[in-house]
Amino acid sequence: VQLQASGGGLVQPGGSLRLSCAASGYIFDIDTMGWYRQAPGKQRELVASITSSGITNYGASVKGRFTISRDNPKTTVYLQMNSLQPEDMAVYYCNAPSRGRPPNHYWGQGTQLTVSS
Question: What are phi and psi of 110, to 5 degrees?
């Protein structure tokens, strides 16, 4: 499975941005797709995830500001980020765990979000 992320960039505090992640290859090996982020000096953390049936999960720091969605045939996920703050600045990684146990995690290449005035 290959994950291609796009949409990062520079945004002012309070602004919005949307990330996209398209899966290709053996997509039957994945169900949940989501986003993690990693800021300098910090551990990678879950931002949001969504299952193929639409069940979502959000990190505590982004609840109410970020929305994850998924298209049909469910191979692209979007992360709508609103009310962005400097603490949201990080490299965002698309993620998809495989169906196997333990799962093999597929990762996209990472896209930088910079929040600055």
Answer: 90, 140
Terminal CA-CA length for the chain: 37
Residue 92 · residue 24 · CB < 8 Å = no
The DSSP element (H or E) to which 45 belongs, if any, is: strand 45-50
Phi and psi torsions of 83, nearest 5°: 50, 50
The helix, strand and coil proportions of the chain, stated in percent and rounded to the nearest 5, come to 5, 50, 45
Report the DSSP beta bridge partners of residue 46. Answer: 36
Rounded Cα distance between 6 and 70, Å, is 15
pLDDT tens digits, 10-38: 999 999 999 999 999 999 999 999 999 99
Contact by Cβ (8 Å): 68, 49: yes
Strand partners of residue 66 = 81
The Cα-based distances of 84 to 13, 28, 37, 68, 87 in angstroms read 5, 34, 14, 15, 8
Give tens-digit pLDDT for 68-81: 999 967 689 999 99
83 contact partners, CB below 8 Å, separation of at least 6: 14, 16, 65
